[in-house]
Design brief:
This protein is mainly α. It is about 85% helix and about 0% strand.
Length: about 230
Amino acid sequence: MQEPLSIVQLILDASLMVKLVMAGLMLLSVLSWGLILQKMALLRRARREAEAFERNFWSGADLNRLYEDAGRRDGAPGLEKIFTAGFGEFLKLRRQGASALSDVMDGTRRAMRAAAQRELDELDAHTSFLATVGSVSPYIGLFGTVWGIMHAFIGLGNAGQATLATVAPGIAEALIATAIGLFAAIPAVVGYNRFSYDVDRLATRFDTFMEEFSNILQRLATRPGA
């Protein structure tokens, strides 16, 4: 009675090219999972910090005190960094005696937009790697499968006898490359789509805060005696 095929044994019996393809795909999968876990932690922390700052900001805290508290902490995150960039620029332009309120507000908005873009760039860093893995892994796996099947049929041609028992192992070991390609691609695609959505939501949150904070500063600047 013929022993059942073992996946591990099929991988070990695969040709050198198919083994290289499988090893490359497994490396891509490991790197993808490492990046996915890192991004999950980073975005979770960014959301938590944004919620904490918004609660503090909209609780009626004094703007100068918030600015001083943020200045005492190195590397203020997310919304707090946008706030410090905008309020710092607002105070600087007021001290310099900018003639028109529009100039003050334009400079403040530019400072906040620059800070927000830096934050979004950091949150979105390296996610393109996931998109690349998701798009190319199935094709790399398919290449390994085609190569393995071609290698199997060449061996059958040299043997001169083709039966299901002789064809099946070669085709099975080749198809494993496609399976590993899908194993690498699917989590990468899901992770990329999820992270893109989360970053877009944070970008909308940043934009909303910048508009609302700009309105607050504009009212503050036009207040009598300000």
